Amino acid sequence: MRALLAAASDGYEAPGTGIFWQPLFGQGQWTATRAMVLMLLSIIILGAWLLLTTRRVAVVPGRWQFFTEQVYGLVRNGVARDIIGSREFLRYVPMLFTMFVIILLNNLFGVIPPFQFPVMSRIGFPVALTLVVYVVYHTVGIRRMGLGGYFKHMIPPGVPGWVLVILFPLELLTYFFTRPVTLALRLFGNMFAGHLLLVLFITGGEYLLFHSGVPAYIPVGIFSYIMAFVMTLFEILVEFLQAYIFVLLAALYIAGSLADEH
Amino acid sequence: MDDDAHPSAGSSTPPVGDGEAWTVLAYLISGPLLYGGLGWLADRWLGTSPWLVLVGIVGGMALAVYLVWVRYGAHDRRPPTASS
Fold first, then answer.
1. What is the pLDDT of residues A78-128, one digit of tens each?
2. d(C-alpha A1, C-alpha A16), whole Å
3. B11 to A252: CB separation less than 8 angstroms, yes or no
């Protein structure tokens, strides 16, 4: 047992938070990281994709136009229209669609070689996106109902006064703190944990197979690679799901700010 | 643009279905966080640690569940025609 531990401890170092800090060039405050370069790249790719596939729009779409319309339709009809309602959803479709494709591509970078880094695993990116959503849904609500009306709409209907005294702070905290924090952390946490897990299985498997020098470890290494493969498939699912949920929640928050019937 | 001439256009229906489950989470976190936090502060002030923080967390949880019930419970579902 001691030999096992010794072999494990001096040879293999499990991946930690350090793998997420990947400076490419520059230094100090002006360091450009892998995540920043990938984000920039994603915007170029998305811009080119959307411009090229919609430049000559045909009534009977070609294959690429069809694909673009499918993705657009998912956000426009599946999220925005269903949640915000058919009367007012169109204003918010550009924002929701942009967020969806940016998050989705940057998430998918996590499993696409040679990018292989989920940009949203750096907390700054989800926070920036969340700030936009935060400003938008509060602005929409205050514009719609006025400042007083916006706070009044947070009061749940049909609740006796004394309960309201303890419920209202809860609503305030939810609107101004918990919602944005959970929105950003959910995306960040999923990407962070998923990437860590993949790196662990892949580098761990490599060590067990090729560098440990113990033949008994080889089956474990193979198992580790099988897990890496399974988790990669699972990651792809999570990457889609998180992009979808982020946009879904943004739409729900906006819808909540528009609903003035409470 | 062209499929806006949808039969239900004009009636802005309130959000329904599984989307709501995700907004509920924020409430469920807020409750224990707020009242657990207040309980923790009160504990430090009164020296009753750890009792008030426990009461706060459990009470906050109960309040959050109650709030979710008030907000999303089936009792205030009006027919969609009344909402616009």
1. 999 998 988 899 999 999 999 999 999 999 999 998 899 999 999 999 999
2. 25
3. no
| A144 in any annotated domain | yes
Residue A185 falls inside a structural domain: yes
Residues A150 and A142: beta-carbon distance below 8 Å: yes
- Residue A175 forms part of a structural domain: yes
8 A C-beta contact, residue B32 and residue B57? yes
CB-closest option in B10, B25, B83 to A261: B83
Q: What is the ipTM of this complex?
A: 0.74
The candidate with the shortest Cα–Cα distance to A181, out of A130, A141, A132, is A130
Residues in contact with A183: Cβ distance below 8 Å, sequence separation at least 6, in sequence order: A126, A130, A133, A246, A249, A250
Does residue B13 contact residue B83 with C-beta atoms inside 8 Å?
A: yes
CA distance A237 to chain B (A): 18
Q: State how many domains chain A has.
A: 1
Which of B72, B49, B70, B52 minimizes the C-alpha distance to B60? Answer: B52
Residue A128 maps to a domain: yes
Q: How far, CA to CA in Å, does A210 sit from each of A13, A217, A220, A230?
A: 15, 9, 12, 21
Question: 3-state class of A174 per DSSP?
Answer: helix
Considering only the beta carbons, identify the residue of A87, A182, A251 that sits closest to B12. A87
Record the tokens describing residue A16, joined without a space: 């930690």
Q: Is the pTM of this model over 0.90?
A: no
Q: What is the dihedral of CA A220, A226, A227, A232, to 10 degrees?
A: 150
Contact (CB, 8 A) for A239 and A110: yes
Look at residue B71 in the predicted model and tell me its pLDDT.
83
User: What is the extent of the structural domain holding A240?
Assistant: 95-258
- Among the partner residues A86, A158, A174, nearest to B12 by beta-carbon distance: A86
With an 8 Å Cβ cutoff, is B71 touching chain A? yes
Q: Is A57 helix (H, G, I), strand (E, B) or coil?
A: coil
DSSP string, A107-152: HHTTTSTTT---GGGSTHHHHHHHHHHHHHHHHHHHHHHHHHHHHH
